[in-house]
Amino acid sequence: RLSVHYQGVDTRWWTPAPNATETREEPIVLFVGALSRLKGAGDLARASSTLVGRRPHRLVFVGDGPLAPALRAHAPAHVSFTGRLDREGVRDWMRRAHVLVLPTKPTEGRQEAAGLVLLEAQACGVPVIAYSTGGTPEMIAPGASLLVAERSPHSLARSIDEALAWSPDERADRGAACRDWVTRERSLRGATAQLRAIYDDLTR
């Protein structure tokens, strides 16, 4: 018999910005993670570059990794890098983001099991865009965040384009739906209760 137990995130820490108001600055497309082939950082850089001329936005990379030198060397003006940040720094950027993108893909026989950063962003009321890889589809709020079936910069750009075209009301509705889904289905409290129930069942 097989039981699936999902990791949860602390929805009391990962929360939307208090008293958030609409901003007039360019929307932020955010990446949080290792700047590596596995995480698809290069795909995101290429997708963003093809879009920025007609969909103005800022692309912010939070993290470090083997692709960092090359990405920095060829980065257009709309791209910035923060390096590694602590948990508060990550949350601050998530609260400012229009959308978080994690295009992780199979690389040298490895693939993402389940990206907790997707849950953290959605708990902050931020919709996410991700490639359909490994356990990623199970970390996405259905109907609110976007899953990219074809793992390519071209397909990724189409999904980012769609997200940047959302009206403020649609963006807010999707963000609220993401937050509600994580609170209901992937919270740390819920994961703890589920694990306790599994152990109780085994010890009967």
How would you describe this structure to a colleague?
With 204 residues, this protein is an alpha/beta fold. The protein is built from seven helices and six strands, in the order E-H-E-H-E-H-E-H-E-E-H-H-H. The protein has a six-stranded parallel β-sheet, sandwiched between helices. Strand 4, helix 4 and strand 5 form a beta-alpha-beta unit. The radius of gyration is 17 Å and the shape is globular.
Features:
single chain; 204 residues; alpha/beta; 6-stranded parallel β-sheet; 7 helices; 13% strand
Summarize the entry for a quick read.
The protein has 204 residues and is of the alpha/beta class.
Q: Structural class from helices and strands?
A: alpha/beta
Taken as a percent bin, the fraction of beta residues is: 5-15%
Q: Runs with pLDDT <50, length 5+?
A: none
Number of strands: 6
Q: Secondary-structure element order, as H and E? A: EHEHEHEHEEHHH
Q: Rg to the nearest angstrom? A: 17 Å
Shape: globular
What's the helical proportion of residues? Answer: 25-40%
User: In angstroms, what separates the terminal alpha carbons?
Assistant: 15 Å
Mind describing the biggest β-sheet?
6 strands, parallel
Any chance you could write out the topology, listing elements then pairs?
Elements: E1 28-32, H1 41-51, E2 58-62, H2 68-73, E3 79-83, H3 87-96, E4 99-102, H4 116-123, E5 128-131, E6 146-148, H5 153-164, H6 168-185, H7 188-202
Parallel strand pairs: 1-2, 1-4, 2-3, 4-5, 5-6
Helix pairs in contact: 1-5
